[in-house]
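Lecture notes, unit on protein representations.

Consider one protein chain, 129 amino acids long.
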Amino acid sequence: MREALHGRVTKHHRFLLRLHLNQIDALDAAISKIDREVEAGIAPFRTAVEQVTSIPGVKDLSARAIISEIGISSVSAGSRPKRAIVGAMVGLLYGSILAFRSLGAAGGGHGTLIPLLKSSALYSSHRRR
């Protein structure tokens, strides 16, 4: 940043830079508060998150999003309609196009789940073994 500031930096520029840096600090503080709130809220579901992260390519944040989409019952006890989604998800993570198509066809309310699963599958396929 110092390299970029060589030249003519006026009092006005310093004022604007200070504003931007203060805004970044405020956003960092807000994100920290949100992270603490999420950690407190996810505590009862920690076991389910750990189960979902055992799927290759699925990290902690993705597991939280998957659980929020498919529900906690799919991970623990498993209900019939949701079991099909989890089965398709596992198939997708291992590259099954048919499973992905069945997930997309039955997906309805899972519009955010499909891109998430695609990125998890991509991560899994490019990860060094």
